[in-house]
Amino acid sequence: MTTRAEGATVPDSTYVDVADVPWQPTRFAGIDSKVLMENKETGLSTVLMRWAPGTRLPKHEHVAIEQTFVLEGSFADHAGVCRAGNYVWRRAGSRHDAWTDEGCLMLAIFLKPNTFFD
Asked: Residue 98: CA atoms inside 13 Å, Cβ hemisphere, count?
């Protein structure tokens, strides 16, 4: 089944061959990403993120709920550590920095982009 969007026919399902999506460096050293889905109008995105060991993400605010499922390794913030096979979500307005000692691979879902202070 397909739907019409602004005169174009759009499939109901979009399949992504993740292996074919290239890793892209982010503006933060040690963090690469594969954007699997992005809606630039709303800010909604699903991103596979790869953090190198010892990486630290500076203080930021989650403008809307953020959800993260850790596939490999672990990452932490002031509230705890999320290890492989576990999930963490953060409320809108929460602020923290995050880091990984061992490195990690995670799937992150953002309703809106984060705001960074550094």
From this structure: 24
* Intra-chain end-to-end CA distance of the chain, in Å: 45
pLDDT of residue 19: 96
CA distances, 102 to each of 30, 48, 79 (Å): 12, 17, 18
Q: Which long-range contacts (CB under 8 A, 24 or more apart) does 28-33 make?
A: 28/55, 28/57, 28/58, 29/55, 30/54, 30/55, 31/55, 31/57
Full 3-state SS string of 93-113 = CCEEEEECCCCEEEEEEECCC
Which three-class secondary structure state does DSSP give residue 84? coil
Q: Would you say the pTM of this structure is higher than 0.90? A: no
C-alpha to C-alpha distance for 104 and 55, rounded to whole angstroms: 10
Task: Please report, to the nearest 10 degrees, the dihedral formed by the alpha carbons of residues 37, 69, 20, 103 taken in order.
Answer: 130
